[in-house]
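Example record

Each entry pairs one chain with its bound ligand, magnesium ion.
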Amino acid sequence: MAKLRITEIFHSIQGESSRVGLPTVFVRLTGCPLRCIWCDTEYAFTGGETIDVETTLKRIAAFGCKTVCVTGGEPLAQSSCLDLLTALCDAGYSVSLETSGALDVSGVDPRVAKIMDLKAPDSGESARNRWENLACLTPRDEVKFVLVSEADYLWAKETLHARGLADRCAVLFSPVPDRLAPTQLAEWILRDHLPVRFQLQLHKLLWSSVAGR
Ligand SMILES: C[S@@+](CC[C@H](N)C(=O)[O-])C[C@H]1O[C@@H](n2cnc3c(N)ncnc32)[C@H](O)[C@@H]1O
Ligand SMILES: Nc1nc2[nH]cc(C(=O)O)c2c(=O)[nH]1
Ligand code: SF4
Ligand SMILES: [Mg+2]
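Structure tokens for the complex follow.
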């Protein structure tokens, strides 16, 4: 039986991506091979509980909500994550996956909406971007840039244009709270006429940075 290491399963309002605002069950897988300087989920790097996919499905079902977001940590660092994603789709859930863009996404069930980061230079992890992943993205998916500086913004803008990202799927630009002023990012996007969606993390406005929300 396929096993998963899981930090938490909780019911909240989706705070990110174009699914923002939807009541959602979150499954947070433990562990991540990256160390983004601004990561807000360091508590998921270690620990967690090992449970099988079947038990995970039962715990998800108990929330009575048909929208699920699989996140982490880095969910794709556990091979059984692919089994969980397919099992959720088979059970009729609307499923999204939050992933760093550093691991191979080609095995992800095509019914899953992949929300894939491209890590900007000031994350400290941009060397990990797996550019081959872009070929696996469809209009169901989204690319996300999380930004802390003007240098990050200029890099994201250049990448958007050079890789033709907006022709492939929706693109999200999000500031890190207390590092890049949201208004500044909004002004840059408008000035440069970027075809992207500006994003704030709704759950932090609602509940600050509480684990399990
Ligand atoms: C915690 S990560 C887990 C999934 C995967 N490891 C990843 O990086 O996409 C989920 C999302 O939160 C974003 N994130 C993490 N810390 C953040 C912060 N301080 N401000 C804004 N977004 C953040 C990540 O960029 C990613 O899009
Ligand atoms: N409410 C809420 N929405 C989220 N969307 C993505 C999250 C994540 O940590 O991946 C997240 C999270 O941690 N909480
Ligand atoms: S890849 Fe995701 S979980 Fe890992 S350090 Fe970066 S933001 Fe945090
Ligand atoms: Mg989060």
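DSSP finds five helices and nine strands in the chain.
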